[in-house]
Amino acid sequence: MDTGSSSTADHLRAALDGPWGDVREEARKQLAGDEFAGDPHLDYKAARARVLEQMRTISTMGIAERGFRRENGGTGEPGAAVTGLEMLAYADLSLWVKAGVQWGLFGGAVENLGTERHREYIERLISLDLLGCFAMTESGHGSDVANIETTATYDPATDEFVIHSPTPSARKDYIGGAAEHARMAAVFAQLVTDGENKGVHCLLVPIRDEQGADLPGVTTYDDGLKGGLPGVDNGRIVFDQVRVPRENLLNRYADVAPDGSYTSDIENPSRRFFTTLGTLVRGRVSVGGAAAAGARVALSIAVRYALARRQFSDPDTGEETLLMDYRSHQRRLFPLIARSFALAFAQNDLVRRMHLVQTGQNLDPEAQRSLEKRAAGLKVAQTRHATRAIQECREACGGAGYLTENRLVTLKADTDVFTTFEGDNVVLTQLVAKELLTSYADEVRDLDALGWVRFAATMAGDVVRKRSGVRQMIQTMRDRNDESVDEGDLSRRSVQLQLFADREDYLVRTAAHRLRARAKETGPFEAFNNAQDHILAAGTAHIDRLVLEAFIDGLADIEDDDARHLAEAVCDLFVYSLVEEHSAWFIMHRFMSVERAKAVRRGVNELVDRLRPDALTLVEAMGVPESMLRAAMLDDASVYDRR
Amino acid sequence: MDTGSSSTADHLRAALDGPWGDVREEARKQLAGDEFAGDPHLDYKAARARVLEQMRTISTMGIAERGFRRENGGTGEPGAAVTGLEMLAYADLSLWVKAGVQWGLFGGAVENLGTERHREYIERLISLDLLGCFAMTESGHGSDVANIETTATYDPATDEFVIHSPTPSARKDYIGGAAEHARMAAVFAQLVTDGENKGVHCLLVPIRDEQGADLPGVTTYDDGLKGGLPGVDNGRIVFDQVRVPRENLLNRYADVAPDGSYTSDIENPSRRFFTTLGTLVRGRVSVGGAAAAGARVALSIAVRYALARRQFSDPDTGEETLLMDYRSHQRRLFPLIARSFALAFAQNDLVRRMHLVQTGQNLDPEAQRSLEKRAAGLKVAQTRHATRAIQECREACGGAGYLTENRLVTLKADTDVFTTFEGDNVVLTQLVAKELLTSYADEVRDLDALGWVRFAATMAGDVVRKRSGVRQMIQTMRDRNDESVDEGDLSRRSVQLQLFADREDYLVRTAAHRLRARAKETGPFEAFNNAQDHILAAGTAHIDRLVLEAFIDGLADIEDDDARHLAEAVCDLFVYSLVEEHSAWFIMHRFMSVERAKAVRRGVNELVDRLRPDALTLVEAMGVPESMLRAAMLDDASVYDRR
Question: What class, spelled out in words, does domain A425-471+488-614 have in CATH?
Fold first, then answer.
């Protein structure tokens, strides 16, 4: 019991490491040193300086190059890039964010929205010769990017764009790098030429000189202290008629000629906007991955503590009881471990899909769009999970959990904003649900609620049953397992998947009906708003189903029998605990009898009993090396383990 | 709509302010200045110094005296003391904790466990001439106080106690004041005399000299950075054979004579232990109150922001929509406001009960015990609420919510440990449930699981129906409202209360049955542990019922019709959202039909619609003055309110 370091753990870790397992293994060695860990005793100015130093070390490791195409000086391995950077999250989330801003967001904008004329910047940004920031969000508009207020007005007299913040709410805000380090910003602004607004475009705008002073017309501010992420210098930028050459427009999808005439291969402005944003999908993929990594660190710490810490005597034996042996503690932590497993498989699957699309190996025109929806959904699932899991871990470690030296509070503080940045979770869940309701119809993809609700009211309900290969998957599993139709056996994967798919279908269909019915009575916004909780539930159900599918796919790839059997139990717990959480819904909508719901609750208890002896194996499988846990209490056996 | 500052808000505020409303009003004026606010830019050393300075100012205000009896130099107003100190939480939670440690915990130990011979200390600790700390928790034992390891061994040769930390896990830990400021500690230790362990007692032990250096045999350590509460100097204390005079034993309930003979008026050691701990109930009462105060500050900020911040256009009007007008946002915040109202009434009721017991106006021998159970339960409910509400508020304010200047992250970080200190919430919920199961039987009150399960197995089930006046209350309400028996109308208070009481009764009764059945098969610990989730649910249901009763009582005292009608809707939302949360349970146990559960969900939506126009009135009623909100974004209308 709890011997750990078993070959079962190794097999499971290999499975959870996914397609870029070698990248993870390499990173575990490269990043284990003290020089990459966060130092919570530094004030935020010093923390920023330290992270910048860490960045300089990392920039020599060949990690950043993976994210860029060969013609741009990279190695063209997006999957390896996201995976490798994710490992920084084990060391320090400030470092991960800083790297993500520089190479992912700023670098990604130049790489994906720019053309040859911007190529010169990429080598410089990889090597950190050029430090950049990604200036999209404004104080007045974050989720609603289409309505940001910064303008980029073309002046044919000088062949320049004039960047300007016309209102107080137009200031760029929360921008990582804007407070201190960035010399250049990828600025999103309304492009105006010939007196006409062409919508949101991105331009490169120098903001500081070599000495770090604001350039003329640019005023930067420091966002100062935040809930966490002290090593990231978030700030504000206000532009007062700042001029940049016309060539600074990142012109992959649209360009302005010297005479001010505007051209674009994408005629529909809404589609152009979403194509622009869509190239930035890697950010959302990465945020979800890093949040889940943070949750794995926290769970690794909390479980190991619960395997050492004792409290109250067992009267049957006289020995003090390990926290991990309490039912309530098992119910706190094991379902979160199960969800971490599920999300790890889902993330690996997502990164693989992203890699295939971004390396041109998947040319299906639907693939990019499907990738965006999946990335949005998994960003929600993983960041929500991280918030919940890390909170639970802190509480499960009591007073020790509150000491910074035991790291949980830092993980909590650093990841807290992950539910917000790269897309607020409520807005993203809604986005996922809208896609479901409109069945990927391009013409309603803009965020205008009016057009969308009108479309949904006519289309949805007819199309909902068409999408996704889930029915095929269920059938395949039934065939494979030679299952007779035992609809009642929730331990069968096909039954589990059917239940998840039924919930999703029902919620999508009924949300569509409700929208249609209400839209006639009230205005479309009112109709939409009235059904918002229903729509969000549909989005969540979809995400849950995707995650389960990924878990099931992942199970099939585990060759070692012991490891697979253990993972099967973990998958069952993921399903049972999620069904338990939603049991009111399942009963109320007649997908589950009261008796079965009670059986599910008992099932959760049985599963946590079943998994108890493998607690250490499970956290070892999650793949956070002990050297990277950095929780003082785990090194202090004499104090906590009195057995 | 949203005009605010209405007389309705004033009436509601008066109701929520409770019996010591004048104390709250006075504190709102006294504490509004910058000098009492936290300064998040200070490092923790400076933050501690600042809080100590604030304490010195407060010690001149007459606030601390209220907590002590007249014969000890106080004014003998425990209700006013707890209420007045709670208001410090609006200013800064570090300050509140520091005051609570000095006057509540340390002062409370001397006042309640000491006798005349310790009176000299009280005047000095009120004035801060003597700074103290409360050294109960050890690294190895927090929840299980009965098994702490520090020893106080009487040496008749010198008429002294020898205080000692025999093991690494015996070190005192997380002790507020131990790192820097405290000169004396109220140390809980196993009292040994004549070679016999007499159980846990409390002694006063000087730990530092006037210059702040550790006294001989005492070694203090700094717990360093924590998740929050930077102004509190938590630390560790290790004792190496430290000698104190015999008279330093706080000897109200037990004493040791010069010859080493031990005497106590309370013969049963277990009852003596619980009597000792019971006198400290004010700590739990206070923690719950301060946590709820923190939640009110956060909700006041988040709601005001949602009434200014807009995002996405309403296509029906072209105007950007206020966050507060989104259904999802209403569902996020209004149920939390409703719970804050409920808990405010419950806290006022608790403080009033405490006041009556502690001033000798309530001499019912059951009152102290009932008070302890209620304080434990409300500590759980309020701290859990704070954790959840403040998290939700942070997320509801997006990126702005993550900036320290908007205060929500500080509230989150500072309150996070409230679910742990003064009793871990899981352990306290269990304590409440055990009391229910054993129906207050003194003889099983010790924490020994063996005896307890044996008792529960024979007694529970028979006694569960006897306790509490809830049935009387329901009947009274039925009579008052001239209700015919319409069991189905959940808008009736009697039906609501019946539903809550039914849930509690059922859970307690079935937990008892389950224990009885299992105890025969397995050992008692195994039986208990197997049913732990069930037992915890019973405790939670009890707490929910108490809170609802307090809300209903509070409603009856609101004389203004508009105010009362509004509060009635808030109470409905409290009930509906709580029933919605537990709807799976209600359906599964046949207390509610599927149709009614669906109606409850619709009811929540209708109630948030109903309350939307009164959002500002509701937060004004919560009584956090605008001057104490200290969220920069609320002062920055040009950026966020673009109407």
Answer: mainly alpha
Strand partners, B161: B154, B244
- B425-471+490-614 placed in CATH 1.20.140.10: yes
> What b/e sequence results for B327-366 when a residue is b if at least 16 CB atoms lie within 10 Å of its CB, and e otherwise?
bbbbbbbbbbbbbbbbbbbbbbbbbebbbbbbeeebeeee
Nearest alpha-carbon partner for B415 in B298, B241, B246: B298
| Pairwise CA distance, residues B139 & B144, whole Å | 11
* Residue B381 parent element (H or E): helix B365-396
pTM of the model: 0.95
Instruction: Write out residues 428-447 of B within 8 Å (CB-CB) of A.
Output: 447
Tens digits of residue pLDDT in A414-446? 999 999 999 999 999 999 999 898 863 444 444
Beta bridge partners of residue A133, listed in sequence order:
A185
Partner B contacted by A169 (CB < 8 A): yes
CB contact under 8 A, B139 and A642: no
Nearest to B161 by CA among B229, B297, B262, B265: B262
Give DSSP secondary structure letters for B213-242: PBPTTEEEEE---BSS-TTS-EEEEEESSE
Mind listing the pLDDT tens digit for each residue in B594-609?
Answer: 999 999 999 999 999 9
CB B138 within 8 A of CB B171: yes
CB contact under 8 A, B399 and A313: no
A347-360 per-position pLDDT tens digit: 999 999 999 999 99
Determine phi and psi for A159, rounding to 5 degrees: 60, 40
B387 CB neighbours in chain A (<8 A) are 391
Which residue among B169, B326, B420 places its CB closest to the CB of A402?
A: B420
Are the beta carbons of B312 and A143 separated by less than 8 Å? yes
Is A593 in CB contact (< 8 Å) with chain B? no
Whether residue A638 and residue B169 make contact (CB cut-off 8 A), yes or no, is yes
H/E run at residue B275: helix B269-278
Percent of the residues in chain B that have a pLDDT greater than 90, as a whole number:
84
- Residue at A60: amino acid letter: T
Please, what is the Cα angle at A376 between A373 and A377, to 5 degrees? 85
What is the C-alpha radius of gyration for chain B, rounded to an integer number of angstroms?
Answer: 25
Chain A residues touching residue B313 (CB < 8 angstroms): 147, 448-449
The answer to whether A612 and A376 have CB atoms below 8 angstroms apart is no
Q: What is the CATH number of domain B132-269?
A: 2.40.110.10
Inter-chain touch A450–B402, beta carbons under 8 Å: no
Nearest CA in chain A to B581: A584
Q: Does A406 touch chain B (CB under 8 A)?
A: no
* B409 contacts A447? CB cut-off 8 A: no
Strand partners, B206: B184
Instruction: Tell me if B437 sits within 8 A of B511, measured CB to CB.
Output: yes
The stretch B545-551 carries a mean pLDDT of 97
**What pLDDT is attached to residue B318?**
87
Any CB–CB contact under 8 A between B605 and chain A?
yes
Give the list of residues 6+ apart from residue A411 with CB closer than 8 angstroms, or none. Answer: A93, A294, A297, A298, A390
How far apart CA A61 and CA B409 sit, in angstroms, is 35
- Three-state SS across B4-69? CCCHHHHHHHHHHHHHHHHHHHHHHHHCCCHHHCCCCCCCHHHHHHHHHHHHHHHCCCCCHHHHCC
In a 13 Å sphere around the CA of B188, the CA atoms on its Cβ side amount to: 27
Q: Which residue has the tokens 């010069």?
A: B258
Which of B525, B577, B608 to mutate: most A Cβ within 10 Å? B525
Q: Is A42 touching B (CB cutoff 8 A)?
A: no
Give residue limits of the domains in chain B: 132-269, 425-471+490-614
